[in-house]
Amino acid sequence: MLVVTAASLLTLNSCKEDEYKNPYEEILKEQLDYLETNSKREGIIVTTSGLQYEIITEGTGKSPLYTDKVRCHYEGSFIDGRVFDSSYKSEKPIEFSLMNVIEGWTEGLQYMKEGAKYRFYIPFYLGYGPNGYGSIPPYATLIFDVELIEVVK
Predict the structure, then answer these.
(1) Which of 6, 40, 74, 116 could disulfide-link 112, Cβ–Cβ 3.0 to 4.6 Å?
(2) Which H or E element spans position 105?
């Protein structure tokens, strides 16, 4: 289990501050502070990995396994509310294998049942990490509204 706190990551700078300064220090602190505050909200479930989620609508169908394919609708945003991706815009759900997506999705979808809609709060280390990817900046916390339509197998 990896537990990352703002204090533990920021201590990297206290060792030899003159030699190393993380250019993303303020962004990282903002992201971790957001997750810390969010974890205390009513209805937020925090897993041992640090994934946070809330149940918007509970499902009644099957739950996917790590080896399954699923069909989902989703919308992804940053903590400031900017949307960076959405299957709703194209009006076309996506289909993918759980083992081929970011760790936050792989873990979170396995808690869901068909027909459910959850909101995932994914820390950077369960998302695109310290490097980011495409339009996702380094250390970004990702928020996804995910609707599990079907476990395809």
Answers:
(1) 116
(2) helix 103-109
Containing 143, the helix (H) or strand (E) segment is strand 142-151
Note the pTM of the prediction, 2 decimals: 0.85
Q: Which region, left, alpha or beta, applies to residue 115 given φ > 0 means left and ψ of -120 to 50 means alpha?
A: left
Supply the DSSP symbol for 50: S
Given a cut of 60, is residue 5 above it in pLDDT?
Answer: no
Phi, psi of 149 (to 5 degrees): -80, -45
Q: Annotated active-site positions, please?
A: 74, 84-85, 102, 128, 144
How many CB atoms lie under 10 A from the CB of residue 75? Answer: 17
Between the alpha carbon of residue 113 and those of residues 2, 56, 59, 129, the distances in Å are: 26, 12, 5, 27
